[in-house]
Amino acid sequence: MDYLEVNIIKHLVEKAKNGNESAFLEIFMHYQEDIYRMAFLYLNNSNDALDVVQDTAYQSFKAIKYLKEASYVKTWLIKIAINCSLNVLRKRKKVLPLRVEYEELGSEKLRFEDFTDLSLTLKELIEILDEGEKTIIFLRFYQDLTIREVAEILNIPLGSVKTILYRALKKLRENMKGDEDYERDQEANQSY
Amino acid sequence: MNEIKKQINRIDIPNNITMRSKAGISKARNGILFNKKKWPIYIIPLAIALLLLTIYIPNNLMHQPTTQYIEGDYAIDVFNRNEVVGFADNVFIGKVTKKLQTINLRYPETQFSVEVKSNIKGNLSGEITVNQQAGYEDERLFIYEGDKLLEEGESYMFATRFMEGEGWHTAIPIGGDVPIKNEKEEKELIKNYTNSFKNEIPFKGN
User: How distant, in Å, are the alpha carbons of A33, A37, A142, B39, B49 from that of B14?
Assistant: First the structure.
């Protein structure tokens, strides 16, 4: 966000905190597409993702008066949206998916640079990754947050974020490799 | 643009997204508790239940106050003590001395005069005003599910946020207004909340 945008958001947040619905809607509309896409990643269903958008609007408008720092409004909304999405999943699965265990990187040292050539599809993102992995992938690569910021939003150790991130990228890469092997086998079979 | 971002951007945005955002905001304002999508599932059993109540319940019981739960999640997990303490400006033990008033915001909120007995986080003293996000509107009690309306003469472990504009301390529901029945409970709560203060999870929105 540039300086002007920060000030506009700050002004709108102040108005929203005083109950101004239009100001809140203006802020919310700025982020609603990000919220929808994030919810869709979790839920893979347009109606449920729209429910999350509505619920996030509902929860956040109720709680906007507690937001002390306007510049955090985006991450604050995203955090509420994550909770709303996980609530839907919890109802579906009757489990709490995002309880990230404390993990440390083992002897296998993976570098993010190893994954820059990753080619993947939306279907793979939705189907291969678990909820915790989707959350971190979304925050890191879609919201462009740093690993430290992701750790702060999710209240989990930095090391866990790194581990989950690498595990997610590795899963995607292995899946890609599996697809390539399959295609190669198919081609080989056809040539016989 | 990275490949992940490119793929996520392939998720189409429905035309009615703004309408749903507006519906959420409007619902927060009006306190409408039905999920529009699911109301047909509830409306028939509800209608039958209301009919049965009208037929079978004696008149005096029909006039008992009803409870309406304030729907949805709080900005934090109110059952997680470390998050509650991290979100709170003050954590203290206090005794409710008097109910002051109920005001009607999006939901009714009730203010109580509270005598501070001891502090765990922050440094309050004397009589302060604690605001609870709960209260009666006509004969209907609005409250978060799992929370209880504060009572005069009772002591509580409070975790509150100071609302500068209003000059009162709003209690965080459930984990921020825990009733204390006896000395044993008080000691246990002091131990637990002191421990949570050491391990508090700060709220990112601060």
Answer: 9, 10, 19, 22, 37
Distance (Å, whole) CA B31 – CA B106: 7
SS3 A57: helix
Evaluate whether ipTM surpasses 0.90: no
Q: Which amino acid is at A91?
A: K
**3-class DSSP state for residue A98?**
coil
A80 shares contact with chain B (CB less than 8 Å): yes
pLDDT, tens digit only, all 192 positions of chain A: 555 567 788 888 888 888 888 889 989 999 999 999 999 998 888 989 999 999 999 999 988 888 878 888 988 999 999 989 888 887 776 444 443 333 444 434 444 444 445 566 788 888 888 888 999 999 988 888 889 988 988 888 888 999 999 898 888 888 766 655 555 565 655 554
Which has the closest alpha carbon to A155: B47, B87, B119? B87
- Say if A45 is an interface residue toward chain B (CB within 8 Å): no
Residues in chain B whose Cβ is within 8 Å of chain A: 2-5, 7-11, 13-14, 16-18, 20-29, 35, 37, 71-75, 83, 106, 161, 163, 201, 204-206
Burial (Cβ within 10 Å: 0-12, 13-18, ≥19) of residue A76: buried
CA distance B34 to B17: 19
- Chain A nearest-CA distance from B3, in A, is 7
Task: Say whether A62 and B72 touch across the interface (CB within 8 A).
Answer: yes
Whether A22 has its CB under 8 Å from any CB of chain B: the answer is: no
Among partner residues B11, B14, B72, which is closest to A122 by beta-carbon distance? Answer: B11
CB pairs under 8 A between A and B: 126
- Would you call A122 and B72 a contact, using CB atoms and an 8 Å cutoff? no
Residue B143 neighbours by CB distance under 10 Å: 21
Per the confidence metrics, is the pTM higher than 0.90? no
Judge whether B169 and B147 are in contact, CB under 8 Å. Answer: no
